[in-house]
Amino acid sequence: MESPGLFDSPADPEQSRHSELCQLLAEHEYAYYVLGEPKISDAAYDRFFLQLKCLEEEHPEWVTEDSPTQRVGAPLPEGSKFEKVEHAVPMISIESLFSNEDIQGFEARVLKGLAGETDVLPAYLCEPKWDGVSASLVYEEGLLVRVVSRGDGAVGEDMTRNVKAVGGVPLRLRGVAPSLLEVRGEIMIPTAIFEAKNEALLAAGEKPFANPRNATSGTLKRLDPSVVAERGLRLMAWEVARCEGGFDFKNHQEATQAMKNWGFPVTPYSREVSNADGMIAFHDDLEARREDVEYEMDGVVIKVNDFSLRRFLGSRARTPRWACAHKFSPREESTTLKKIEIQVGRTGRLTPRAHLEPVSLGGTIVRHATLHNAKYIESLDIRVGDTVMVRRAGDVIPQILGSLAQERSGKEEAFLWPTSCPSCGGNISVKGEHRYCFNMDCPAQIQRRVLHLASRQALRVEGLGEKAVKQFVDAGLLKSVEDIFSLDYEKISGLDRWGEKSALALKDQVEQAKSPDLPRFLYGLGIPEVGAETARALCQVFPVLDAFCSLAEKADAVEVLQSVEGVGEEVAQSILGFFQDPRNLAALEKMSSAGLVPQAMIQKKAIQLDGVTGKVFVLTGTLSTPRLEMKALLESYGAKVTGTVSKKTDFLLAGENAGSKRKKAEDLGVAILSEAEIYQRIES
Ligand code: ZN
Known about the structure:
single chain; alpha+beta; Helix Hairpins; CATH 2.40.50.140; binds zinc ion
């Protein structure tokens, strides 16, 4: 019997472990990015990765170019430029079409072009048109050697270092590799990461990215590849541009399957159709699911499947005759900024809000957009009367991306902050990126605070809506938030649109609201940083109102507060500050002498609620309660809230302007509930 390995050079067991780890990690990446079926947990991946790194630190000579550790290289020095590279095969663009008639025209042109060549009707493949950064990836003998951005189609920039850090980019091809391969694909940022990044930029007073595409290209231009890795960019391959060494594909489907086998992520949304009707149906289906797809798309790409037919059809000056893009309705559009209004929030923060000439965006009419803060307006140079670009995506508040300075007539006016509060005429203070009116008697603030305390998530006084509260504040019946419990109902019955009966009904509601659950009341006080979820967590530790009121006497108040789940130092300081303020304590005193008795928190397990507990909910559209709070509320009854509608969804909670998710729920037969129906279930 031969002893194994006798004539081979005996492999160092550590070195075998090195190649084993490389293989294991590459397999996992393939399972995760291409198959969408991760086989090991993220924690296990990190562990293996660390082991590999340690081995390579001890044996730098073992490091291969395709080792998973080589994805994220060292940052380039400040001022480095990306080298210009000519594309071996130009990256041509395709024609954009906008209407169903255009698509019928495309089909007619293809058929006419093929007349005489074939009697079989051609098949077309429809796929999403991803809205990211297009790039070309070149592999030699299976190894990734270069990535070049589209650039002007003829010359792009070398982005190899950064693209190695993009999720799903194979460093080495799987299986039998061609001697030379050039694959085209789109690099994109997941929409969720884009939105979170923009929120963080705005919170820091910085200019946000205009759209996911800009966020992607901005990220790819960074000199430090670790930023690329952090942002979670992903690749989606869409075309084989060159392939040498014994491979021959008859059509797009074969080429796509080959890309998948080599380890490239390819689109999960693809349909073969035989005519314009099929193309239009795919376009409409995908557009309806736009909010549910993780990445931004701006339309559908339609390509003749068969490569020999493509060659026969050829190209016009700049675009091929065998493909087109059917665009979605735009998310960005230009319109006129009519005026900038200053809103005063309940904490006194002044927020500029744009009034726009109504414009249709992504299927809804947009009239207002947020302008965030002064720095935002300044950095974008937005003037009243300007033609501005507005973007609206999903449930995000519409935002102004910038102004078209070339369209100015000279009559536009730069925005100037008012020198005094538009509601009370009081002084304006600047704090960080924001401006505030700190006048406690400011009518707009009182109005906002009362509305918050009376809201569904707090005391639930339905009679105290927007109109009524404004009316009472204007009539001097509500001079502060605590007046809510000692309203003069006789005077109310004499107000416009009021009578004895409606005043009494309101009185009833207010009386009932005098014994709220403590967490609801605490939330209703509108302490900055304290949402419904935090309020509930706080009341587990401080079960009675007095426990909060005596916080100021405790030396370790901040630490005690921070022991509560979800409470960091900032939140703790905010709570302490609120209960240290003598005006707030006086207001609480006044409320309790008017009969307010918040109900102590009883330690209880999650309440079982038929039709809520154990059910899976998806939220969509505009709700009167903030999303996160509605989620927390449902979860407090043991429901699960997820992001996308699927067969597992029990209920879709649809607010106003519910779009694609509602359609999907209807298609899947998922029950749709209104916000009022949810409250009925909870309150019954
Ligand atoms: Zn004011």
